[in-house]
Amino acid sequence: MDMNKSKKRVYRINVNDNVATSLANIEPGQLFYVISKEGKIFDSYKSVNRIPFGFKIALKNINIDDSIVKYGYKIGNSFKNIRKGEMVHIHNIKSNRIELPVNRRKAMIDMLEKEKYIINWIEEFFAYEIQGF
């Protein structure tokens, strides 16, 4: 696959990871490429929903109570079914490191919804571009 086909890329850190980190804002239905730590493209998908820069995205279908694996380690478990290409965050996973009460989780999800423009502003302000990927 040719890297120049799209600037929308996600970074899979470990071969056992079932999530990757978005290197750009990705819009619903947009094609993105999965790259390895060596910078090689090994797959491509279409996003299910908007994936902000820096957020996790599912690389496979993840069922309720499945482990979320990043860096080759279990970082949490899903409490909802997550489709391949869908954003993975506090609205559908529970962290293994931090216990977040349900009311606090809802408040954080509401805040994320209301504050989406901040991510766009940061990306535009810094005109962020990953070089060499």
How far apart are the first and last residues' alpha carbons, in Å? 13 Å
Largest sheet geometry: 6 strands, mixed
Any guess at the CATH architecture? Answer: Roll
CATH topology-level fold name: Archaeosine Trna-guanine Transglycosylase, Chain: A, domain 4
Which runs of at least 5 residues are low in confidence (pLDDT < 50)?
Answer: 1-5, 125-133
SSE string: EEEEEEEEEHH
What share of the residues lie within helices?
Answer: 10-25%
What is the highest CATH level, the class? Mainly Beta
Portion in strands: 25-35%
| Secondary-structure class | alpha+beta
Shape: globular
Query: How large, in whole angstroms, is the Cα Rg?
Result: 15 Å
Number of domains: 1
**Total of helices:** 2
- Please report the total strand number as a whole number: 9
Average of the residue pLDDT scores: 79
> How do the strands line up in the largest sheet?
4-3-1-2-5-8
